[in-house]
Amino acid sequence: xSGDIRxxxxxxxxxxxxxxxxxxxxxxxxxxxxxxxxxxxxxxKGHIETGLKDLQAAGLVDDPAAVLDRISVVDQLExxxxxxxxxQESVFERVDVKTEVxxxxxxxxxxxxxxxxxxxxxxxxxxxxxxxxxARFMVSHPVNPPHLVPVVEIVPAPWTDxxxxxxxxxxMTGVGQVPVLVRREIExxxxxxxxxxxxxxxxxxxxxxxxxxxxxDKTVSYGLGLRWSFMGPFETIDLNAPGGxxxxxxxxxPLYHGIAQSRTAPRPWSADLIADVTxxxxxxxxxxxxxxxxxxxxxYLTRLAAFRKRQEEGK
Amino acid sequence: xSGDIRxxxxxxxxxxxxxxxxxxxxxxxxxxxxxxxxxxxxxxKGHIETGLKDLQAAGLVDDPAAVLDRISVVDQLExxxxxxxxxQESVFERVDVKTEVxxxxxxxxxxxxxxxxxxxxxxxxxxxxxxxxxARFMVSHPVNPPHLVPVVEIVPAPWTDxxxxxxxxxxMTGVGQVPVLVRREIExxxxxxxxxxxxxxxxxxxxxxxxxxxxxDKTVSYGLGLRWSFMGPFETIDLNAPGGxxxxxxxxxPLYHGIAQSRTAPRPWSADLIADVTxxxxxxxxxxxxxxxxxxxxxYLTRLAAFRKRQEEGK
Lengths: 315, 315
Known about the structure:
2 copies of one chain form a homodimer.
Chain A: E1 7-11, H1 15-26, E2 30-34, H2 38-57, H3 64-69, E3 71-74, H4 77-81, E4 86-89, H5 95-108, E5 114-117, E6 137-142, E7 151-156, H6 162-174, E8 178-181, H7 191-207, H8 213-228, H9 233-238, H10 244-261, H11 271-284, H12 290-314
Parallel strand pairs in A: 1-2, 1-4, 2-3, 4-5, 5-6, 7-8
Antiparallel strand pairs in A: 6-7
Helix pairs in contact in A: 1-2
C-alpha cells in the first residue's frame, strides 16, 4: 500500500504545513498545498525556500530548486486532495475546525486516499466520526518544525483501518521521519504526556521556590536533555545501572514512586504563577527578541540534525 | 573564596570520582584521589587516561599527559583531604556510608575546606548533622559521567553557609561545569524529580499498553530530547507560542492539568511491569552488550559535547 503513495496533499499552509511540504518533497514526492487564506498561499513557497536553503547550508539537501519544483500551491481544497494518495491535514487545532475540514476532505478524496491529521492533542475520533471514509483517517502528529524534528505520532481512531496505519507508518519511514505508534487514543498522546509530566514538575518546583526557571532549564539542557537527544528514557536508565533496567528499577523505583506520591494533588498553573514565570523569561529574553530566538532555535535544530545524521551514518 | 580553591581532594574513585578528577584536573587544578579499595586505586589512573584520550580525539583536551600529571592517588583519606581546598565525596549512595565518610572527612579537613557530596538523592542534612564543620558540607550532584555532562546540582543543607555555596558555585563555573542552585532540600533534587516525572509517565503508558518502550524512547530521542538538549522546558514552551510562555501556558495549561489529574493514584513499578520492560530491552540489547553500549553512549556524549562547544563558541 505504501509503495503506492507518490502524491501528497497538504491542507493548511502554516508553519506545520510548510514543514510537512519540505519533508515529502525532499523525499521525491509530489506535493500540492491548499490553504483558504490567500495571504498564506502567497507566502508559503517563500517560507519553504528559506527552509530549504538552511537545509542546504547544513548539507541536508542537495538541490533545493528541484525540491521546490515538486511543490505547487492551489486555491481549491479539491485540487490538493482529489489526486492525492496521502493528505496531511494541518489546520488550526480546534475540534470544530478539524471537523469541518475533515468532512470537506472526505467528500473529495479518492477511494484509496489516506488522511493524517497534524493534531497535537485532539484525537481523530473527535472529528472524523461522520466521515464516510473514516477508516482512512488518523492522527499523524509531528513536532514543529517537522523537517527538523523527525518523530511522528501515529494515533488511529477506534475505526481506523490497520492497513491504513501500516501504510502511513511505511510512508513516514520512507520519507525519513521516525513514526511511533500510539496504539489507542489518549489525551495528549505520548509526546505531550511525557512533556506535560516534566513540565508539571518543573512548574511545581518553580512555584514552591526550589529553583529559578533558568536553573530548571539548565538542569535539562546541560543534563537530562543531552542523553535524551540520542537515547530515550528507557535506554538511558537501562545503561545507568550495572544490571540494566531491572537493576535500576528495583533500586530507584521507590524513589520515583515517592516523587509521584508527592504530586497527587496537582494544581493548575495559576495566573500568578504564569505571571512569575513570564517575568523571569521576559527579563532573560524581551518579547521583541522572541522571533529572533525562534530563528536561532531552528538554525540550531538544523545543525543538530546534520550532526545526528553524521552519527547515524558513522554507526 | 573561590579564588582560593586550587587543590581538590576526591574521596571515592569509582566512575563518578574518576570523572570529577578529569573535570578538575583539565581545568588546571591539582587533584588527589583516595579510595579505600586497593583494586580501584590501581585502576583509576588507567580509566582517567582512557577518558582523556577520548576527549583529546574529540578536540576537547589538548594535552592529556599534562592533565594526568596533576592527578595523584593516595591510600589514606587524610592525604587526599587535609591539604584540599575542596573535597568532592563520591562514595556509595547509602546514608550510613555517606555518614561514616563525612565524619572521617570532617575530622581531617582544614579550617576553610569545603565538601561537596556527589549524592544523587540523599540530602546533606541526612549525613552531615554530626559533623563539626557541617556549615561547609553540601551536595554537589553531577550527572554521570561528569566530564561529559556538565550540570551540577548544588543543594545546601539547612545549616550550610551561604558563602560556601557561593564558593562551590564559582568553582563549578570556573572549571566549565554548569551549576544550578536547589534552594532547599527536596527528595530527588531537581534533576531526578524531572527525570522521575517523565519516567513515571513513560512506565504508566507502557503498562497500559499505549506504546512499546522502543516507541516511547523514540518519542524522546527523535522528538522532545532534541530541543531539550540545548533549551530547557521553559524556554522550549516560551518559543512555542506566538505570545511566549504566557500565551502557551494559558492555551495548554488545562491540557497539562488534565494529564496531571489522570495520574493522582500512582502505582509503583511492579515486578511484572519491570519484567515486561526488561524483556523488551533485553530483546533489543542483550545483557552481554550492555557494557559495549555504555561505551557507545560515552563516545556519543563526547562528540555531542564537542558539537555543543562549537555551537557556543559560534554564538
